[in-house]
Amino acid sequence: MTNIADWLLPCLRQVQVLKQTNSLSHALLITGADGVGQEELAHEMVKDLMCEKDQAAACGTCHSCQLMNADTHPDYRILDGEASTIKVDQVRLLVRQISQKPQVGQNKVVLITHAQAMNVNAANAVLKALEEPADRTFFVLTSSQSTSLLPTIRSRCLLVNVPTPNMVDVRAWLGRQPDGEILSSLFWLTTQPFRLLSIQQQNKTQLYAALPDKLTSMLRGVTPVSGVLKGVDSHNIEDYCNGLAAILHQCICHSTGAPIDEVLQPIYDTLITRLGIQTLMQRYQSLQKMKSDLQKTNLNPIMQLTHELNQW
Ligand SMILES: [Zn+2]
């Protein structure tokens, strides 16, 4: 039984029905806001497509399903553009690999996640493959910025739009995940469900969850700046910058009338009195700049953050 988020189910069923009736387009483009689960949905769809059985959902037991679960299926290829640009050589190699007859089942699948990361040549190579589809070969693309894809690619795909879930659904789903209750207290950081889940998977739940209280304590003069930054190192400094920037962002929004998470209220009350809105915005920009400079400079990151927090 698939443990898939409720808001992804209608999209999954839609494609399963098309698959079962042999009326599925050979190219799918899954779109939606960042963090709503396009990639998770795509992985489920790919499993269904690779199953050898003539049924809507993957059986989980056939040879193909077993190979998919072991991540060793020879007729399935994936390119992920999350961390870096997808280049034309990668696309050409993959198109060449899947141009052979299927080795196991009947279908072959190419999954390209974060497809907006394809450069122009890579996108053209994908377009060419879509224009001359190989038999029983499916392309599944995901993108949170589908309008930046070539219109000619979009027009050749069946569009599957993942809806943005409401907060009640997100909370209920988080409740079924490890650390769910703590993750539900991090809506000041993000309301993207799969971004929250990835924080848990990287063992960073506590890092973020502890930040508001540490900051409140620092602003009250109880904890020194060094206490707030205890545990910061080159591996997690970006998380601290993200967390602090998110808190400042919430405070800036609150100053214009948006509601604020109650855990941030004492921080807002102190900062708005002490710094004022203009300085708050400067501090926010300074944190963003520090984050983007982290990779480029050799300055000690803890010294930089200490200097930043000393001005709060
Ligand atoms: Zn199967």
Give me the secondary-structure topology.
Elements: H1 9-20, E1 27-31, H2 38-50, H3 63-69, E2 76-80, H4 88-97, E3 108-113, H5 120-131, E4 137-143, H6 151-154, E5 158-161, H7 167-174, H8 180-183, H9 193-201, H10 205-219, H11 225-228, H12 237-255, H13 265-274, H14 276-293, H15 301-309
Parallel strand pairs: 1-4, 1-5, 2-3, 3-4
Helix pairs in contact: 1-2, 4-5, 10-12, 10-13, 12-13, 12-14
The site of zinc ion has 8 residues, from helix 3.
Protein name: DNA-directed DNA polymerase
EC number: 2.7.7.7
Enzyme class: transferase
Question: How would you describe this protein?
Answer:
49% of the residues lie in helices and 9% in strands. The chain folds into 2 domains: 6-161, P-loop containing nucleotide triphosphate hydrolases (Rossmann fold), CATH 3.40.50.300; 204-309, Zinc Finger, Delta Prime, domain 3 (Up-down Bundle), CATH 1.20.272. Helix 10 (205-219) crosses helix 13 (265-274), helix 12 (237-255) crosses helix 13 and helix 12 runs antiparallel to helix 14. The longest helix is centred in the C-terminal third of the chain and has 19 residues, at 237-255. The chain is of the alpha/beta class and 312 residues long. Helix 4 links the parallel strand 2 (76-80) and strand 3. The radius of gyration is 23 Å and the shape is elongated. Bound molecules: zinc ion. Zinc ion is lined by residues 51-53, 58-59, 62, 64-65.
